[in-house]
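User: Can you recover a sequence for this backbone? Please restate the input before giving your answer.

Assistant: Of course. Working from this structure:
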């Protein structure tokens, strides 16, 4: 029997994009692709941030916020946020979902599915559930709030299995882009296996987040009002003088603050790392997804946006889970 769920607040721009004709959506996209529109459309969540009892950040979460603010990306480990048994439990859950996915897989592939499978995403939050506790982490939501300067909205999660694609050419999300769905985002990527250069590490262009020196570069909306990918040849030319830093070559103590090689200067960061690595990124900033040459990459992604998000949320909340949420987390989840 299906579980009962509570009604969640909708995203206003998402609803408008779904109702309006393409020419009007184009005008809407252009009109809202700026800081002034952001603040007006998010005014309720900015005011809530000023009055809400936001959980106190741990030292590592404070460090993440500072690095996000400066560079648009930050790095940590799962053990710095959760107990040592957490990674193993999440790997077990991931594998269970992967086995269930493979049992129903028809083998037909199109678009991004030729190199990445979303094996689980429509999570239902329930009490006393390990996955609900991880995805609904108050520390993740609180650090997103501190970075954004407003109470964030939870959008959903994805369990991704990435593998070698059919061609040697990158495609879709493997190309450099800004996420289309918002101008201020915090995504949390957790590696569940060791990700070396050949396993398709996430790559981020530090300094291209909205507050960075290159925050306006390659930021354009298309005919349907949605942000479009840059021309690949144009951005590759732009990237030629930009240094590339491989995360595994940087000592952990030098990945934060002024010690980081990418601190305060545009840099490409190739996010290699062992299982349990956490990557926090404002994916309005330029980035590209994993291009696997050998092996695979398993990860869990969690997304926080503002109220101007135009990506359909993919989660549900049961009344029992909603009843145990703090006022801050009720706003994050959009519980009415």
């Amino acid at each position: 029997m299906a579980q009962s769920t509570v009604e969640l607040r909708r995203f206003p721009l998402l609803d408008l994009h779904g109702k309006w004709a393409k020419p009007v959506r184009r005008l809407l996209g252009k009109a809202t692709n700026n800081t002034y529109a952001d603040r007006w459309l998010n005014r309720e969540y900015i005011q809530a941030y000023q009055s809400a009892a936001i959980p106190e950040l741990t030292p590592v979460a404070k460090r993440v916020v500072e690095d996000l603010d400066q560079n648009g990306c930050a790095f940590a480990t799962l053990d710095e946020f959760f107990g040592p048994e957490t990674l193993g439990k999440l790997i077990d859950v991931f594998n269970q979902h992967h086995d269930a996915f493979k049992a129903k897989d028809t083998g037909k592939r199109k678009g991004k599915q030729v190199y990445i499978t979303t094996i689980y995403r429509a999570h239902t939050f329930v009490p006393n559930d390990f996955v609900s506790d991880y995805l609904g982490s108050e520390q993740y939501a609180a650090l997103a709030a501190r970075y954004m300067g407003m109470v964030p909205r939870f959008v959903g999660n994805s369990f991704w299995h990435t593998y070698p694609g059919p061609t040697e050419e990158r495609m879709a999300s493997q190309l450099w882009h800004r996420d289309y769905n918002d101008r201020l985002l915090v995504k949390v990527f957790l590696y569940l296996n060791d990700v070396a250069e050949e396993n398709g590490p996430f790559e981020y262009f530090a300094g291209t987040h909205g507050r960075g020196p290159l925050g306006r570069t390659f930021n354009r909306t298309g005919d349907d009002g949605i942000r479009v990918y840059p021309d690949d040849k144009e951005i590759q030319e732009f990237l030629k003088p930009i240094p590339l830093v491989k995360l595994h070559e940087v000592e952990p103590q030098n990945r934060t603050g002024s010690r980081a090689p990418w601190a305060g200067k545009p840099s490409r960061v190739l996010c290699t790392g062992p299982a349990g690595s956490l990557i926090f990124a404002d994916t309005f900033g330029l980035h590209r997804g994993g291009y696997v040459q050998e092996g695979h990459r398993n990860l869990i992604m969690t997304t926080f946006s503002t109220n101007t998000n135009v990506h359909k949320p993919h989660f549900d909340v049961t009344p029992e889970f909603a009843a145990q949420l703090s006022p801050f987390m009720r706003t994050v989840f959009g519980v009415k």
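That completes the design. The chain has eleven helices and twelve strands.
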